[in-house]
Design goal:
The protein is mainly alpha-helical and 196 residues long. The chain has helices spanning 2-18, 31-59, 77-96, 111-128, 133-138, 142-174, 176-190, 192-195.
Length: 196
């Protein structure tokens, strides 16, 4: 998996250079305060998510792993809670510190480039899965669509919290490479309970 994610990361980096993505000015007036608040917000979010995961495991009689138990769209209710747990602590700190929305990566800057890169990688990933493109389209049902929505919630929440919110602040405080590395390490560490 590390090799696959490294290749994806390199592809995203290369495509962002090819499409001439511009750096985003986050507009942070107090980077040190913002970075400290971001680490605290991530800690709060992850603690609450851990408690929610623990509750779900107890309800599902100790099932391990991070595979969702999705049979249809009604099973997505908990994902609204997960999305709120990703976003609310960060939003509280942003409002309290009067930080602009663009400081969390939500901006029109590079929007079409990001959409093209994301769509291209999604289609590529879908294409390389076994079975061929047409065979996979024929197997799409409501459970598959609900699972896609489930992972979209998870993906959006994680990208908002770790890449948009935390990484932006760590880069403003520590510098580009150091911010990238620390944000990546924090994101990797919070995924360890999923593997237990």
């Amino acid at each position: 998996q590390c090799v696959v994610f490294t290749i994806i990361g390199m592809a995203v980096f290369g495509l962002s250079r090819l499409f001439r993505c511009k750096p985003l000015d986050p507009g942070l007036k107090e980077p040190k305060r913002s970075a400290t608040g971001a680490l605290l917000a991530v800690g709060i979010s992850m603690s609450l998510l851990f408690l929610l995961m623990l509750r779900q495991r107890i309800l599902h009689e100790g099932a391990t792993g991070s595979d969702p138990h999705i049979k249809g769209f009604k099973d997505l209710a908990v994902q609204w809670i997960v999305l709120a747990l990703y976003a609310v602590p960060a939003a509280v700190f942003m409002v309290r510190n009067r930080e602009p929305l663009r400081s969390s990566g939500i901006s029109k800057v590079n929007l079409w480039q990001a959409a093209l890169i994301g769509l291209g990688l999604a289609l590529f990933t879908f294409y390389i899965e076994p079975g061929g493109f047409i065979a996979k389209i024929g197997k799409v049902d409501s459970r598959a669509c609900a699972t896609l929505v489930f992972y979209a919630f998870v993906g959006f929440g994680e990208e908002f919290l770790f890449r948009g919110y935390l990484q932006t602040r760590l880069i403003a405080q520590l510098g580009q490479w150091q911010g990238w590395v620390l944000a990546s390490v924090v994101m990797a560490m919070v995924h360890l309970p999923h593997r237990a």
